[in-house]
Amino acid sequence: MGVLSNGRSKISILPFLSTIFSLLALVTESSNLTKDYYKRSCPMFDQVVTQIVTTKQMDTPTTAAAVIRVFFHDCMVGGCDASTLVASNALQGKTERDADVNLSLPGDAFDLVTRVKTALELQCPGVVSCADILAVSARNLVKMTGGPYYDVLLGRKDGLVSKASRVAGNIALPNMTMTRIIDLFKAKGFTVREMVALVGAHTIGFSHCKEFSNRIFNQPDPKMNPKYMEGLRQLCANYTKDPTMAAFNDVMTPGKFDNMYYRNLQNGLGLLATDQAMADDPRTKPIVDEFASNETAFFDEFAKAMKKVSVFQVKTGKEGEIRHRCDQFNNV
Ligand code: HEM
Ligand SMILES: *[C@@H]1O[C@H](CO)[C@@H](O)[C@H](O)[C@H]1NC(C)=O
Ligand SMILES: *[C@@H]1O[C@H](CO)[C@@H](O)[C@H](O)[C@H]1NC(C)=O
Ligand SMILES: *[C@@H]1O[C@H](CO)[C@@H](O)[C@H](O)[C@H]1NC(C)=O
Ligand SMILES: *[C@@H]1O[C@H](CO)[C@@H](O)[C@H](O)[C@H]1NC(C)=O
Ligand SMILES: CC(=O)N[C@H]1CO[C@H](CO)[C@@H](O)[C@@H]1O
User: Fold this and answer.
1) Which CATH class is domain 45-171+310-319?
2) Mean pLDDT for the chain?
């Protein structure tokens, strides 16, 4: 640009050219997400992601839940910008993934993104963002486990900030009241119906005993099915000594993305206090009942809400970068 403005006074065509250049720069900077963002710059994008995600999920079926959870957390803390993937470092200190609430964020998700990124860097170096890899991987894994398909727009940049201190207040906890959770989602533009659908992701995956120990040991929750409680007590008997102990979020069909989660809630088979509370609260119960009896209604709403999550506060243009490695910023 410097060269162009120096020449402006000398040659008459240059002002015109420079206008075009600044227009181009503007377009690039505010460029919106598109479905075929990598069509020219990385034509193998879809194929590479699909192949690696499929292989990893078949080898390690815990991957799907891990990736969906990490993706959701990433988006809720400063937008879908892969900031959750950054390891703690000297420059920014303790990062999102090492916030206390993130202590249990699963390694399979980080491993998957690293594999996809490594493969894509060989095909088209410096082109594909970690944020896009995470968004498409999560979508593919919802589908692979039996859930709905939705389009994911592409062109996210990777964020330049990741701080553990930004996690608190953005991520729902199982000991929060329903009002608090509704407010938390509302503050990010999500309706109660979208919230109920999104939490339906708990139709797959695990929770560690400490996340629900209170309602099976200290203050046994009368809403919980007694036989289920007995089973969980046995499973978690030793959880303080062995903190890796975990239970399926959906005790009936733990690896299948279906509407069983909502049917469980109707039968006192919700694992987390907040899960079970959704079947009780007058604001959420009608939606739980609807999703429990109509899987299509759940899938439609989940797909719509995930699409919305996946563009939440995304960064484009100079707001971010294409990380060379998903676990560190480029300037370290
Ligand atoms: C009321 C809001 C929510 C609360 C309180 C909550 C809380 C939790 C907790 C405590 C765990 C267990 C973590 C562990 O022990 O490792 C968990 C797991 C999980 N959450 Fe949520 N969550 C909420 C909403 C969501 C949403 C909106 C999604 C995705 C769209 C989601 C996806 C998952 C998945 C897939 C797992 C299983 C992770 C795995 O197996 O590795 N959650 N959640
Ligand atoms: C991006 O697209 C969305 C939806 O099409 C639109 O609402 C928004 O204004 C666009 N943003 C920019 C920066 O072009
Ligand atoms: C909820 O749990 C978190 C972490 O387990 C804890 O720091 C917080 O104090 C608890 N909040 C309430 C209201 O009990
Ligand atoms: C409890 O955990 C300890 C430490 O991991 C282990 O040695 C012991 O066998 C466990 N006991 C039961 C009943 O699971
Ligand atoms: C189930 O939900 C879908 C999508 O909202 C709707 O079109 C359909 O009519 C519902 N089916 C029943 C039996 O209510
Ligand atoms: C402090 C701490 O244990 N942080 C963990 C957060 O989650 C990641 C991913 O599983 C772990 O690697 C960190 O050790």
Assistant:
1) mainly alpha
2) 90
